[in-house]
User: What shape does this take?
Amino acid sequence: MTIERRLARAEITLTRDYPASVDRVWDAFADEKQKLGWWGGGSTMEARDWAFDFRVGGRDIAEGKFHNGPVSRYEATYTDIVEHNRIVTTYDMWLDGIHTSTSVASLEFDPTEEGTRFTHVEHGVFFDQFYADSDVREKGTRGLLQALGNYLASGT
Assistant: This one.
């Protein structure tokens, strides 16, 4: 089978208001135990590989197998961290061992009267047969932000 070589680019912007302080939302990203409480795994995925190194230049890895589905692998490098303000990463995704995309993502934490306005902006390049996956990526990111909201609401 010949793979058609092509690229697609997409920008995703998602904003959520969480009824939790910036410190609380920030810690859900910056503290490994807390991040494990909402990122990946759970009822939809069997966790496999995990690494957490929250510092500029540090790398995160999250790999898991969707039940009755493919293996997803996420590898990120932190390029900028301003405590309680922003996190910037570059990251790559693989699906069943095939490199599907490279992205730059910025995460912003802004205080509001009710808690925190969280903004995720991502610029992605999707490769070859995965050129149309930006919709899938946005759905996955929406799912992660919902999981974060559920985690924050649980008070754990």
Summary: The first helix runs from residue 22 to 30. The chain has one domain: 7-154. The two ends are 49 Å apart (CA to CA). Helices lie at 22-30, 32-36, 134-154.
